[in-house]
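Re: the pair you flagged

First of the two:
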Amino acid sequence: MNVLVLGASGLAGSAIAKTLRAAGHSVSGTCRNPAAYENAPGLLRFALNEPQSIVPLLESIRPDAVVSCLRGDFSHQLEAHRLAADFLRQRGGTLLFLSTANVFDGDLSRPHGEGDQPCSDTAYGQFKIACEELLQERLGENCVILRPPEIWGRDCPRLRALVSRAQQGLPVQTYENLSVNYATDTLIARWTAFILERGLRGVFHAGTRDTSDYTAFLDRLAGRLGLPRPCYAVERNGTRAYQAVLPHRAEIPGPLQMSVDGVLRWLAEAPAP
């Protein structure tokens, strides 16, 4: 399979490109400045502030599938996605869009499944909903939506910040009465490969099967990494809230599923950054 990963220098995008390449697929990826990633093969320049430049890129690569992990200006992203969708609609191909749990931040009363209607009160969540709707309208079943919750990696900025701040006794942001589920960069990459290779369609919630209290997760992770208990800056909320997108798609097999405990074990397997 010939795959183009948009935003392949980021946490999820780089893991996706690496996993697809290891599985034998032909993979190209985009980033703003390929020269900054000398050890990353197949990176091509794509400047999001010039969204129309995605067209000659697509014409040159002629991908069977596009995976979008783009970040940046919302209006430019929408235009780039519109152009990519129109190209794939004419030439054939699938677009897998990495969305977010924030499409449900307008209803934090419960965890959400794939069949729930998105509802957002934030600019970010509303933008992601707009992207989902645009791609679904233009590509139909050839659009795949992957909604992850908070993504962690063994060398991700979140983990490095937790280690640094806990060691220095600096406050770590947390939220009272918030239950969430989690994803890892490798989990997202494995789901992406599985979905593309089997031609699956629709919406997938790519996170742990269970939830955890937000502060409890940070406490447990710090303990597993041998760190002192973090000092927290707590955003107060008297009502229990959920920012969780739980997976229910039967096509995803057990070995590709994770629990919160599994995420904690995996993050602690490598030495702290």
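Second of the two:
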Amino acid sequence: MRFTATQVNGLKSKARHYELFENTGERGAGRLGVRVCASGNKMFLYRYYQDGKRKFITLGRYSNDFGLAQARAVAIEYGDMLKSGLDPLFELERQKQEKLEKELEEARNGSIQQLFDSYIDNMITRGKRTHKRVKEQLEQNTFPIIPPETKAKDVTTLQIVEIIAALIERGAPVESNRVRSALHAAFQFGMLHDNNPAYRHRKSIFGLKFNPVAAVPKQSHVEKVGNNFLTLAEVKELLVRLPKEDNIAFNAVMLFTLCVYTAGQRPYELVASRWNAVDWENRVLEIKPEISKTGNAHFVPLSDSAIEALNILKMDETGSEYIFAHRIDPGKHYLTQSFAHSLRLYIKKSDFRKFVPRDIRRTAKTLMGEIGISKETRDKLQNHSMQDVSSKHYDRYDYMKEKRQAIELWEKELSNS
């Protein structure tokens, strides 16, 4: 028996609900049925057997929009699943889950969380060693105000103002500028992302039409140009005093010494260097591209005093590949935070005036200028990024001769009594 539209339409309600099922004679395809409720409402059902158990799927309520033809089409679809060895109920649940996951993925697509993740991935690809700090700055300051799932294109300038204002009100105006710069860079990256052929395989689409950070001003009045530097006499005094002090770590003493004798190299680039970067024969330290701030290899000529400092470190080494090994874990290098902390403790306990690690670099740059070393040579020696067209695209001279002459002159100045 197959249902007809007239038959279904003519089914009458009874005191209790009852069910009728078609019998097409086809085995293993399930049956289309109708449940007639006591209220008179009719529901289409699909009944089938799986592993000897009877199962039901409600297809929908009988109405002008869902009649016998529509119900039979769905029943035939489920029957085809059954004949293919699939459980229709399981397949429905699987399809439902896939749809949900797709909707969730779509909801996440282009979110501010994805924007931050993509930007940080880009920083890592470009060898930016500050990526961890930037990630923390972005997430810790943004997500309390803007939920991570918010579409990046829906972020407003007013929300950015809230983020920056919270930092200023907390008494951290300098940090507010750092966070603003990170946000601006992330959204700027997002604006170019969608049309960048390099990212065509990525699913994330941000759809940014403008940078919401651009209209938020930087707190320029809190940014002070660093002016603190040590005198030549103070540098010489520290070179003598620090090795004799008991209240400052050995690595801190040696890092200060090597920073001075290498003409103000960045502390991180020295502590992250490995012994294989030292060319003892040619007296050169190579700052490898992966730790160099500019992303380029940088070659530092070594003076007698720098070689002596490296030999002292070599005698103290614990088998670590790093020149400045971590005291607890030789598989890691000494931390610049520890260096800064050691200097703060020394200054606090001594009568020496306040200075920070960055001042060492400024000191070397300033004092070398005073003894006649050109700014160009000082810039090359300290591995500053040259952005002029000539330096960036054409000048491939290594300036090793000039850098070595500068190091020798600097060494002579430091050794003069």
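The first helix runs from residue 5 to 10.

-B.
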